[in-house]
Amino acid sequence: MLIRAARLSDLDDIVNLVDYYAAQGALLPRSRESLLEYLPVLGVACVDSEIAGIVALHQLETKVGEVRTLAVAPGFHKQGIGEKLVQYAVAQAEKAGMTKVISFTRQVAFFQHCGFQIVARETVPAKYFIDCVGCPMLSHCDEVAMERVLTSTTFSSADDSGSSHPIISKVAGIGQ
Predict the structure, then answer these.
(1) Going by fewer Cβ within 10 Å, which terminus of the chain is more open, N or C?
(2) Which residues, at least 6 apart from 37, have a Cβ–Cβ distance to it below 8 Å?
(3) What is residue 61's predicted lDDT score, i.e. its pLDDT?
C-alpha cells in the first residue's frame, strides 16, 4: 500500500467514494467542484492501482489542522488503512508545524485508538465559524469533537527516499 498526495487523475474515484458514504449519511455530500478545490489537501491510499481510501488535512488555524473526509473503500475494510491514513494526516500536520489536529466524528473509539481525546466543541471555535454554521446538520449534529495534541517534532533533511519525515516514508510506502 502507498499513501500519497491526491492527483487530478484520482478525482473520479474520490468523488465516487465520497458519494458512496454521503448516501449512507457517513460523510457530508460534496460536489465534484468542491472536491476538485479540495484536492491539494487530500491524501489517497492506493493498493495496486486502486484507491483504497482517502483523507484530508484541512488547516483551520495557523497551528490547528482537521482530519476530515476520511473514508476507506468497502473492499478494503479491516486492513488498517483508516489508521494509516490518519497517521499520514498527522504527519502532514507535524511537517506543517501544527500543534494540534482535531476531528469531528461519530467514530470515537477509532480516533481514540489513533491518539485523539474527546474535547468540548467550544475549544474549537474556528471549526464552528468555518464549517458548522453552514452545515445542514447544525441543529442536530451528532459528531463528537476530538483532538490530538502534537508533540514537538524535529525533521531531518530529506533522506534517500525523498521524504522529509520518517512517518510519511513508512506509512506512504516510499521507497518500498
Answers:
(1) C
(2) none
(3) 86
